[in-house]
Amino acid sequence: MRTMLLSLLLLLPSLAAAASDGPAYSHWYDPARDPVADYAAAAADAEKQDKLVLMILGGDWCSWCHRLDKFISSRPELNERLHEQFVVMKVNFSEDNENEAFIGQLPEFLGYPHFFIASADQEIIGAQNTGLLEEGEGYSLQAIEAFLSQWEDYSQKVAK
């Protein structure tokens, strides 16, 4: 019995890793990650997949970042649509690591989470204040779908 319990405990981390979809740069706001390297990797992935890069700036301390993640992950169709259109990259901003050098190169913005949209050649082509996507104590499905539609139209024009 102990051997089986120990085996299960040792297996859990690998199961968790297998269950997480996508590259590590898209999972959470990790202060140990290098956003410059992540951006290069995300842009390369976007190039291969004919997608745009969606950078989401935020942190573990950010309640609205948690709400956004929960909102999207609890709606499989929305989550799928988001990842069909974008290579998603999360950039940490926290007391542990403000990523000043990287974030300082981005256009000015207010608040977290914040979206920046970039082409595969790493050109910032848009930004979205996520406060405009909020509704009450959460997010508006209609507003997020409108955001996705706006960039879907852009992607289709660029692809032609």
The fraction of residues assigned to DSSP E strands is 15-25%
Percent helix range: 40-55%
CATH homologous superfamily label: Glutaredoxin
Q: Could you tell me how far the N terminus lies from the C terminus, measured between alpha carbons in angstroms?
A: 61 Å
What profile does the largest beta sheet have?
Answer: 4 strands, mixed
What is the quaternary state of this protein? single chain
Number of domains: 1
Mean pLDDT: 87
Query: What strand line-up does the widest sheet have?
Result: 2-1-3-4
Under CATH, the topology can be stated as Glutaredoxin
| Element-level helix/strand string | HHEHHEHEEEEH
Q: Helices and strands: which structural class?
A: alpha+beta
Coarse morphology: globular
Q: Give the total of beta strands.
A: 6
Helix count from the secondary structure assignment: 6
As a whole number of angstroms, the C-alpha radius of gyration is: 17 Å
CATH class: Alpha Beta
Low-confidence stretches: 1-19
CATH architecture: 3-Layer(aba) Sandwich
Can you describe what's shown?
This protein has 160 residues and is an alpha+beta fold. The chain has a single domain (23-159), classed as Glutaredoxin, CATH 3.40.30.10. It has six helices and six strands, in the order H-H-E-H-H-E-H-E-E-E-E-H. It has helices at residues 2-19, 35-49, 63-73, 76-85, 100-103, 141-159; strands spanning 52-58, 86-92, 114-118, 124-129, 134-135, 138-139. A four-stranded mixed β-sheet has the order 2-1-3-4. A two-stranded antiparallel sheet has the order 5-6. A hairpin with a 5-residue loop joins strand 3 and strand 4. Helix 4 runs parallel beside helix 6. Residues 1-19 have low confidence and may be disordered.
